[in-house]
Write a structure and sequence with these properties.
With 401 residues, this protein is an alpha+beta fold. Helix content is 33%, strand content 22%. The strands form 6 sheets. It has a 6-stranded mixed β-sheet with strand order 1-2-6-3-7-19, with helices on one face. Strands 10, 11, 12, 13 and 16 form a 5-stranded antiparallel β-sheet that branches.
């Protein structure tokens, strides 16, 4: 029996244990900055299945370790979730955690506590089959990603001093192999005006008119942004509008808009800011303020670790040996060619590879179309398949498969 057959057998053996663990996590609300209870539950499971070390760092990430080799790899899952939204749109409780019809139901099941569950049971398989001899393997359950993707890994790299040669991102990929995604930025444009009584608007300077003209130039900017044959087109959208005014019957004296900017390959913070400033100039307001926002929320541990809301694009090269290894593992486990693709949304890869040039490859249970949506679920058989892939990749990197 091949090593991949042994891995597959164990992943199916532990499939329902993996699903029940995911159900337990889903039952614990774990919104960004409020993840302590689910972190404790993950640490408990890591210890139960036999990890060599389990600890929680200063930001609140749970870090499990297997092995003590000179080479370092990591598997990452963010374990915070978005809120359920309008619960009338759900056909079951957002925090059900129920296993029904081959699915684990509830918020976070796909995005992305399913990846966490599969990682932990991959660790059990790695230990049981003795698949690791060369590596220190970290399994990170990371916090605050939904609020600020990559912040957790900025902390892990800079403060925990963990520098892997490869990170496997376990965000949902529908069991495909992903090798990148566009970056993003959160930008605000501000303009000033002069208030006056609304009955005589000519006495003032209406800030809403100014910001409206800028917003229309932003709409035009979106049409001429750079495209890329793999990652797709850069985009920019006005997502929020704000103003200040002395009263409802006064001309507003200030206004601002917020932009969601998605960055394709080759676009940078500097190029994106320059384009927005040019749009302001074309609208007739070259003095408008263009501000890249900052994230300054406090973690559940009480730590504040501020960062700019610039999340760089990343893309693993087609000729990467890690991508080649991932494809070979996939074929050995599933007897078919993998689909290699990209995420539409953003992940912790913005810090790991985008900021620190550490190669990333993506593979996760669940489909990203259910992320942030009502009736979110993760198929049970995806969980065992993902566990098998993670364990198989470790075997491959240790030259055992």
């Amino acid at each position: 029996m091949s090593i991949y057959q042994k891995i597959s057998e164990l992943s199916k053996k532990y499939e329902m244990d993996t699903a029940r663990f995911l159900g337990d996590m889903v039952k614990i609300p774990a919104f960004s900055t409020k993840e302590k209870e689910v972190i404790d539950r993950i640490a408990q499971e890591m210890k139960k299945v036999g990890f060599d070390e389990v600890r929680i760092d200063g930001l609140g990430n749970v870090i499990g370790r297997i092995g003590n080799g000179k080479r370092i790899i990591a598997f990452d899952a963010h374990i915070d979730t978005v809120y359920p939204g309008d619960e009338s749109l759900w056909s079951f409780s957002p925090f059900s955690g129920e296993i029904r019809d081959g699915k684990v139901l509830g918020r976070g099941s796909a995005d992305q506590e399913g990846g966490m569950a599969s990682m932990v049971y991959a660790g059990k398989i790695i230990k049981e089959l003795g698949l690791n001899k060369d590596f220190t393997i970290y399994f990170t359950g990371t916090v605050m990603e939904e609020d600020c993707d990559g912040l957790c890994w900025q902390y892990i790299i800079k403060e925990d001093k963990i520098l892997p040669e490869l990170v496997v991102i376990t965000e949902p990929t529908n069991l495909n192999i992903y090798r990148g995604h566009r970056g993003r930025m959160e930008i605000v444009i501000e303009v000033g005006g002069k208030s006056c009584h609304g009955s005589a608007p000519e006495r003032g300077d209406n800030a809403i008119y100014k910001i409206s003209r800028i917003a229309l130039e932003i709409e035009k900017l979106n049409e001429r942004l750079r495209d890329h044959d793999f990652l797709g087109k850069g985009t920019v959208a006005v997502t929020q509008v704000f103003f200040s005014s002395p009263s409802q019957c006064a001309v507003p004296d200030a206004a601002r808009i917020q932009l969601d900017r998605r960055l394709t390959y080759g676009e940078t913070k500097e190029s994106a800011v320059a384009e927005v400033k040019e749009a302001c100039r074309l609208a007739g307001y070259p003095d408008a303020k263009v501000i890249v926002l900052r994230y300054e929320e406090t973690a559940y541990t009480g730590l504040r670790y501020p960062t700019e809301k610039y999340y760089p694009t990343w893309m693993l090269e087609e000729n990467s040996p890690y991508l080649a290894a991932s494809k070979e593992v996939y074929k050995n486990l599933f007897s078919k060619e993998p689909k290699v693709d990209k995420w539409t949304f953003s992940t912790n890869g913005v810090a790991i590879m985008g900021m620190h040039s550490i190669p990333c490859v993506g593979f996760g249970p669940g489909n990203e179309i259910y992320a942030h949506a009502p009736d979110e679920f993760c198929p049970v058989d995806h969980l065992s398949a993902a566990s098998a892939f993670y364990a198989g990749l470790v075997a491959k990197l240790n030259n055992l498969g």
